[in-house]
Every structure is written in structure tokens, then in C-alpha cells.
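Input record, target 12 of the design panel.
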């Protein structure tokens, strides 16, 4: 009897941004193929959206998909992508 050592199928990675500083009653939700941003004040939600867009642009420049980068590399990309 042979045991198959097939690799499990990779699931595509996804990013989740969660803003907790909303006090104006608006429900903000922005989604994409590999991300979801929920909540936050207008400013926070905008900053998170900008960060995610720039993160995916950087990944594309590097020729990588989200599920192909190590967590440490992703953290560096996100820090670089965050508006100051």
C-alpha cells in the first residue's frame, strides 16, 4: 500500500483590516479579491485602504502573490506601504 504525499492545495492568502475608532455611526466596508477592510473612522478606513492598495502594488512589483511571501516580508511591505 502506497501513501500519497500530495501537497495540500494552497489557499490564496487574504488581508483583513479592522478599524475600531468609528464613532459616527457609519458602516464602512471595502473589499477586494484578497482583502477586506471593515469599520474605522473615515480617516482610518482611508488609510487602511491606501495601505492595502500599495501593499498589493509592491507585491506585484516583486512578482509575488500574497500567499508566496513570508509573514516577516509581508510585515515589512505593509510598514513601507502605510501612509505617514
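The sequence produced for target 12 reads:
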Amino acid at each position: 500500500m502506497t501513501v500519497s504525499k500530495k501537497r495540500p492545495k494552497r489557499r490564496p492568502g487574504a488581508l483583513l483590516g479592522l478599524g475600531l475608532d468609528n464613532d459616527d455611526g457609519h458602516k464602512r466596508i471595502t473589499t477586494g479579491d484578497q482583502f477586506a477592510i471593515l469599520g474605522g473612522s473615515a480617516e482610518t478606513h482611508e488609510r487602511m485602504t491606501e495601505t492595502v492598495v500599495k501593499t498589493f502594488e509592491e507585491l506585484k512589483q516583486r512578482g509575488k502573490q500574497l500567499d508566496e511571501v513570508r509573514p516577516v516580508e509581508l510585515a515589512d511591505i505593509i510598514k513601507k506601504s502605510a501612509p505617514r
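The radius of gyration is 16 Å.
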